[in-house]
Amino acid sequence: MIKVMVVDDYVPTLKKITTFVNQSEQYYVIASLMDGEEMIQYFRNNKILPDIVVLDIQMWKMDGLTAMDYLHDFFPEIKVIAFSAFIQGNVVSDMFASGAFAFIWKENYSHYLIEALKCLEKGQPYIDPRIKFEIGSREYLMQERQKEKQSVYEQYKLTSRETEIVKLISFNKDYKHIYEVLKISPRAIKNYFKHFNNRFKLKEIRLENFFLNRRTRTAENNRDTIKNENK
After folding, report:
1. CA quadruple 10, 208, 171, 97: dihedral positive or negative?
2. Alpha carbon distances (Å) from 19 to 49, 85, 179, 185
3. Are 71 and 39 in contact (CB under 8 A)?
4. Contact (Cβ atoms closer than 8 angstroms) between residue 36 and residue 64
């Protein structure tokens, strides 16, 4: 059976999706989580990982765009279905650029979620047909996003561990949160903070200042605002 994780901060929706997925003979939910931060903690601290993550975008502690960016960097083999009531602006293209495999609009989602799961089984990306987006542009968006990341990594010469810590710092996580996620001693984390501050001559490390703006800047930003075809 295919292992699924569901991440959504609205409890009724979380329960409904979990129940819906578990009704299938092909899939079962191994974790139902409330936000992106819980998701990262799970991935860092558990050996049994999901094959597919159904990921909400608008969440309280850590949104889906942030969680997607982290997940694709450190667990790129995991396929993600973005799942949201919010489909305006560049949110759809941003999620695909960050590595999402599928995107579903929450309204009357059941049929489309099943279709997405079937596509992911075959290694094929999926877009809810009610959303105006050219799924063929996904690879291009991901390539442009990766170029942006690589230029930053090379500029600051960050190791994989440093990248991971910088991302968490940038998400406003303190020593305690970073320890809980990465299981690094508070003293070691404190030394990383000092090292980064000295190295980059910054009082605070923030994603907007020097790392990666999770709202990707590519040619996709010149596209028209995404609209629901039913409107």
Report:
1. positive
2. 19, 19, 32, 38
3. yes
4. yes
Q: How far apart are CA 15 and CA 201, in angstroms?
A: 46
pLDDT of 115 strictly over 60? yes
- Note the pTM of the prediction, 2 decimals: 0.77
| DSSP, residue by residue, 66-125 | HHHHHHHHH-TTSEEEEEES---TTHHHHHHHTT-SEEEESTT-HHHHHHHHHHHHTT--
End-to-end Cα, the chain, rounded Å: 38
DSSP for 170-198?
HTT--HHHHHHHH---HHHHHHHHHHHHH
Q: What does the pLDDT read at residue 222?
A: 32
Q: Is 23 exposed, middle or buried (0-12, 13-18, 19+ CB in 10 A)?
A: exposed
